[in-house]
Amino acid sequence: MYASSFPANLAAAVAAAAVAAAVDDHGAAAAANAAAAAAAVAAKAAAAAASRCCMNAQVRCLQQQQQQQQQQQQQQQQQQLQQQQEQQQLQQQQELQQQQQQQLRLQQELPSLFDYNSL
């Protein structure tokens, strides 16, 4: 707040000094010209302060957007990793079931291979 009011305060002080000097030297017309010049300086200073404030707000907004995008990307990456892990677990379970089924078939066929009575 103080930084944005400083240019206006400085311009007002310059205007007051210019008006006082102009009144002493050239009269009321010169004082009016000096006051107009000081007002123009004050207006430029206020516009510059407002511009800096606006730019700072835009920078903060862009930073927040970047943070949100990074968070979304991280969440997507975590979801993809979780899906990959779930798929791997499912594949492992399927492979284990296939192995168990093969073992069961072998166990069922094995006695018939050694059944000498069937020969």
UniProtKB/TrEMBL annotation:
**Please, which domain of life does this record's source organism belong to?**
Eukaryota
**What residue range is the signal peptide?**
1-22
Q: What is this protein called?
A: Uncharacterized protein
* Entry keyword set: Coiled coil, Signal
Q: Which residues form a coiled coil?
A: 59-110
